[in-house]
User: Fold this.
Amino acid sequence: MNRTLESQIIAQGMNPELISQQIESFKKGFPFLKITGPATPNKGIKVLSEEEIQKHLNSYPEKAAKIDVVKFVPASGAASRMFKDLFSFLEGNGNLSASPFVQKFINQIEKFAFYPELDQALREKGTSISDCLDRKDYKEIIATLLQEDGLAYGSLPKGLLRFHSYGDSKRTPAHEHLVEGMQYAVGKGKTVQIHFTVSPEHEEKFKQEISSILPDLKEESGLNFEISYSQQKKSTDTIAVTLENEPFIEEDGSILFRPAGHGALLENLNDIDADLIFIKNIDNVVPDRLKDTTTKFKIAIGGVLLEIQNEVFETLNALELEISTQHLEKAKQVFTESLGAKLPADFDSQREVDQAKFLKKKLNRPIRICGMVKNTGEPGGGPFWILEEDGSQSLQILETAQIDMNDPVSKAHLHAATHFNPVDLVCGTKNYKGEKFDLLAFRDMQTGFITEKSKSGRELKALELPGLWNGAMSGWNTIFVEVPLITFNPVKTVNDLLRDEHQ
Assistant:
């Protein structure tokens, strides 16, 4: 690598050696994971009984009141993809019948929570939604929604769009996450801590939105709120390369670096100091009338984590005091039954000292409970059993790109999968001594993704870091719990807001 390129890499806050490794990854690609089967109900996915759920509903609030709980919300994504069809319509001839998507949007426009705001923006231009509809001037409505001289929804993040209507009050996803936090993320000092990862250009707007909401929420709930923000670190960007795996050089002579996907947020998560961290995407929110089920299962998976974490901590403390047959049996039970993992086939033939070493290493890891919903054809990673290099089997969330579709066995496992990942996690990131784990030590750098893109009319290859709930958490202890489909209501397109769950 020449000196000019190296100085650019250092100026980006990156390590030239790491960039060399990334270029090597482009050349070699990433290995597929060895799947031994899909995780299914009672074979890798826990199905909680009503009694178990009730137990956690009763005990969790008291436990949570003694610890630091944080709700971590990745919220930096722009909403532009939500409006892809509307942007295409603006660029086209304005023929409504040629686009069923836009036709539906226009025909039901009064059902959107942003309707009054959009109408007001049009009135400030000397017209209104009804005037535009009478004139069949649909482009004016859409342009006012999306463009900077109107509501600028085309360039705002999802978290700041009006999603839900409550009479005169209209809530954004950011607002809904605060309300959700009051229901299951109340920790020590009756405090709701919520952390949003945001884009630098949107942080000020988030702060304005939150500060307009908080006074009423505090008064109504009697709770304290601590809202914090972080941005995806520039040092987590990855280098882009040409199709020949050479650094992609822009016209001005600079190297092209690109954001490395949600896996880059592992650094942000690593900076959070809390006993319990809930993770949920910004667009997966529902109105108050549907929040009960979400709250119930969030408390349930939080309770499961605290219960199992306590077992793990007791076991590790016991092993530290004495390596005995009794303590090893208990550790095996926690690993295979409570955590649901599988030991290597030759484990029982190993010496006790080696068994203890193995179990200590396996148990002393971050823990995550992942809600899983029944697969209804939605895109998203799925839960699988993976064969580890040490012969044990672990539970992992895999994307299709990590599965060898040319291998009939792997392909059959994929087709036999019954559930997928709605990004509904609760994490324990401290060890049995109360110290924070370094989460970067538990990711598998061999699980990234390579995609083909273009820039200024030139083809390029881009590298995504191991996904936040995929390879970035590969070395965690993972437990899958079935949660109802109603807890998963993402908004991928603007017309998703017309679904009953968002009305």
